[in-house]
Task: structure prediction
Amino acid sequence: MTLRIYNTQSRKKEEFHPQEEGKVGIYVCGITAYDFCHVGHARSAVVFDVITRYLRYSGSDVTYVKNFTDVDDKIIDKAGREQKGIAEIAELYIREHDEDMGKLGVVRPTFTPRATEHIDGMIHLVTTLLEKGLAYPMDGDVYYSVERFPGYGKLSGRNIEEMQAGARVDVNDKKRNPFDFALWKASKEGEPWWESPWGRGRPWWHLECSVMSQRYLGDTFDIHGGGEDLIFPHHENEIAQSEGATGKTLARYWVHNGFVRVNNEKMSKSLGNFFTIRDILEQFDPEVLRFFLLQSHYRSPVDFSDAALSEARQGMNRFYSTLKALKDIAAGGTAIAAEPAAKDGEMTAQIQALRERFVESMDDDFNTARAIGHLFDAVRFINTALAEKKPGVSPGILLEGKKALLEIGSVLGFFLEEPDTYLRRDRDREAAKRGLSIAEIERLIAERRAARAAKAWQRADEIRKELAGQGVLLQDASDITTWAIA
RNA sequence: GGCGGCAUAGCCAAGUGGCUAAGGCAGCGGUCUGCAAAACCGUUAUUCCCCGGUUCAAGUCCGGGUGCCGCCUCCA
Result:
């Protein structure tokens, strides 16, 4: 089975063959560092994290580059408002970004270059474009001439004439064509600047990605990714810059993730309907957010809500409960090499099938939703075996099942915690959300324990009911009563 | 106005023309339990927005509606 990836440019799923067997180069457009990251940024990060993890799981040597835009109008504005330097603002939000991503279990990209580290390369690229007649200087600015690049519009499926009919572009009389875009702009008073052949100025947004991708991955690389809002104009312009300069294909596969929505609208800064990652992580475990995001296919929109996260939380608890049960088997001192049991063969086949189905799902354009479905199937057959009074599956085989769950989980970035730690933290967090006192819950449990010992069932049930009314569910085991939040 | 996407059960969601339309959440019935919870078993879409068409066969392909969303300005 071969990996197939949906390529935005062809609008089709294509078989994936890297330019060099066993090696994959990925470039993903990162954030502009001027504020905290929101759930939309989390989705992009998690999606490409899983893509990277899966390619590595499949045996590829992946070089993953994700940039930071650290010079930009928004950063300058923010710096002005807060009376800080732009470097200070960028540095702060890059650090916050890294912290959020770390919590989400996003593996650090191989390289995380920043725009300002590559000014020389940008000046060089602009020079090349000028030499090739693809760009023109104008009052200290330099613009790209889209009409001079024949492929302009090939990624987003547009052409210049059609777009002009709709004409919703800002009028700028410095441009020869309204769709020409700035490569470099003269800096105004108070703005950061670098010396250039066109005077003191600063690079414009699209330029950095062309330079940094080439620097780390070469003229042509395998996968270029980002949110679907970057298709036009950002990625279209990157193609114009890079391919205009090198004459070579920039990226062989274009991969774009869908949006996170809130009440059916795109989550975005400008609409103000965003939730920051850190806000959400105060309410839910990072793995819950991750699970929520991966439960839908990466190209579909996902609707974000508290209810949706709560459902995701329930799903994640199901996984962790099974993992805990499996761990308890191992901890129970049961000999791993117990004699074969009747259903060992069946279980072994199921585990094998799980691995195969996982690969099959992921090979189909990274279908994490389907992969998760298979994971739940696995949980059910493991739970079935665990529930049997007379064990039909030997512990050693069950632990093979656990191994498979953890292995697949690691590709999706799940099950990174110890089950006990995860479940306790989840429980305590939910209790805190409801304003419940853990000490009080435990006091009532102790009282009920005494009542039960005395076979005072009525009092025991009263306590159960009282706690249930607050969302606290008691679970009586033979020797201990544990509790959970509904 | 131009370009593109989506519409599957109460909710979320997968579905690569052909076995009984994954899976999760929620609900209901049962097993287990002193009673519960968890877990397990069963159950919840004769049908995939509507109307036509292609085909032996369509949720899946084609055409036309309707509704929603996105990009075309910064945006993951």
Q: What stands out?
A: Chain A is about 50% helix and 15% strand.
